[in-house]
Amino acid sequence: MAEPRSPGRDPAAPPPLRPADVGLSDEEAREIYRLMVLTRALDERMWTLNRQGKAPFVTPARGHEAVQVASARALRVGVDWVVTYYRDWGVALALGVPPYACLLSLLGKHDDPFSGGRQLPGHFSDPARRLLSPSSAVATQIPHAVGLALAARLRGEPSVAIVYFGEGATSEGDFHEAANFAGIHRLPVVFLCENNRYAISVPMALQMPTASVAERAAAYGFPGVRVDGNDPLAVYAATRQAVERARAGEGPTLLEAETYRLLPHSSDDDDRTYRDRAEVAAWEERDPLRSYCARLRALGLWSDADEAALWETVRARIAADAAAAEQAADPPPSDLLTHLYADT
Amino acid sequence: MAELTLLEAVRLALREALAADERVFLIGEDIGKRGGVFRATEGLLAEFGPQRVIDAPIAESAIVGIALGAAAAGMRPVAEIQFADYVHPAADQIINEVAKLRYRSHGAWGCPLVIRMPYGAGVRGGPYHSQSVEALYFHIPGLKLVAPATPRDARGLLRAAIEDPDPVLFFEHKRLYRRVRGEVPDAPECLPLGRAEVRRAGDRATVVAYGAAVHEALAAADILAAEGIAIEVIDLRTLVPLDLDTVLASVRKTNRLLVYHEDTRRGGIGAEIAAAVTEAAFTDLDAPPMRLAAPDCHVPFAASLEAAYLPLAPALVAAVRTLLAY
Questions:
Q1: Domains in chain A, start-ordered, CATH in brackets?
Q2: I need a labelling partner for B3 at 20 to 30 A (CA). Which of A256, A313, B220, B252 fits?
Q3: Which of B51, B97, B106 sits opposite A140 (nearest CB)?
Q4: Is the ipTM reported for this complex over the cut 0.95?
Q5: Which residues in chain B are contacts of A340 at CB distance < 8 A?
Q6: Closest residue to B66, CB basis, from A133, A135, A181
Q7: Domains detected in chain B
Q8: What is the pLDDT at residue A27?
Q9: How far is it, in rounded angstroms, from Cα A262 to Cα A314?
Q10: Count of H-run helices and E-run strands, chain B
């Protein structure tokens, strides 16, 4: 049984990491925060657009910003392969995907660069950033990352493949098959599990007999590492280490970032039917934006003025992007049959 | 010209592709040291090394999913599924991922891979080494399906499949592997996908077939020819794209259509062709389109039962007589 750990900080724990502890400059640490805020602001706007009836479906990232942004910042954009799942708004933004692109996907617009309005929102795709288009199926993207890593190996390229998935995906056969193959061939893959403790409504205890996802890595012959997914500096350090290990030819790593989704699974879900409000409130106390902002302030890297200016800028940008996206053209019906094959 | 078995022709195509294009690699179960359970990849591990001829664990979904990832990165993977009966664990990857990648990314990503699989009955393989699964994938947009009947086609169409920018399921009838021999040009040859071939000209009825059924149809044509009945035999060669034009041109000449396949009847390739021909050439037909197919049941092991299952040349002769008597 996986006992929920207390979300409060253990007073005996070591002091919080500082940027220099993980090889980040102060400015890079601030940039991670800015991207987390951008992700949050985008998330809030998307939720609002859904509640206004303008966006049919959203899979919110709220609560996952630290793991998504900080892990992506440990990658070499355009060199490393990235395969996401449908909640990874922060990964996309941290790779440099514009919020406008995300909003076009939210509204299913023709210029949605991920899919031309064909996929549900958040199915990130961008060949220039080596961000591979995923489906909505759970865990099918994991062997794709192994194949990308295999191609890098065959071509002698220095690329690492990172694949994101929730802990729910680790129950699927594709997780096992992919991890097994990557372990056998010591491929340059980072398996990044955003463990938010629920597969929609099914809690960890009914998903796995182990207390963690990370311990499964032992069966595949590579390290499994647990990290506080709400601490961006810890996530950055762990991802960096896993990526460097992969790039050095030392094989895969399974990273388990413990986090919590602060909203329902999707805009069609109602988590009040399966999650205790006290549990959600306790994790709200560990909101990664709040805790990271407090740490940057304590280190003298962030001020009230910075905070106010950032939110004002970001909200204005998202509002403008959303307004523009709402005005963007829908896909023409004539587009229905294009790109089924290379010559169509 | 060399005379090769269909199996040798498949191996030739794989060897040529590996030699010609460094993006090509093979992945599948037992394809390395063992050379494949049917020997299609025999000698290729020694010639091209373990980086390009990869023995995979028994994990069909991973074989296809990994091939997709490598294809997206610009490689040209050729996956082998040991028996078509065992492609089912990879159905999610094929249907949800391989078939949809280009469409769902609005053309930003392609998926140039080939999935080879031995299929078909008549070798005492029982329910799990005999299945014909092509109709399942015939229904899925985004895939191409190839089912060669001759060694030359196996070589030329496999080369074309590997070079194709889109995913191709390549069905190799295992009963033909060593039973069929034929001329294969010495020079490398790519045969275009999507073109059927008239294997036997005739004017009384059109028989449309693919794979092993083509050879049964030619045997039936011989029997009927001895009675002065000339039937036209069309080998589809590729199921998707489907060369309906060649079928329609024949039907407009013979005015009778019989679609003949070893796969089961319900929802099969024959149903689609019969419907398409009816829609396009109803007034050219002197009789309702007819299907000869296996009954809607599984493939049994016992010889007597398998013989009852398999529609072979004598059954086709009888079916043609029925069609002509309409």
A1: 31-326 (3.40.50.970)
A2: B220
A3: B97
A4: yes
A5: 102-103, 141-142
A6: A181
A7: 2-184 (3.40.50.970), 197-325 (3.40.50.920)
A8: 98
A9: 21
A10: 12, 14
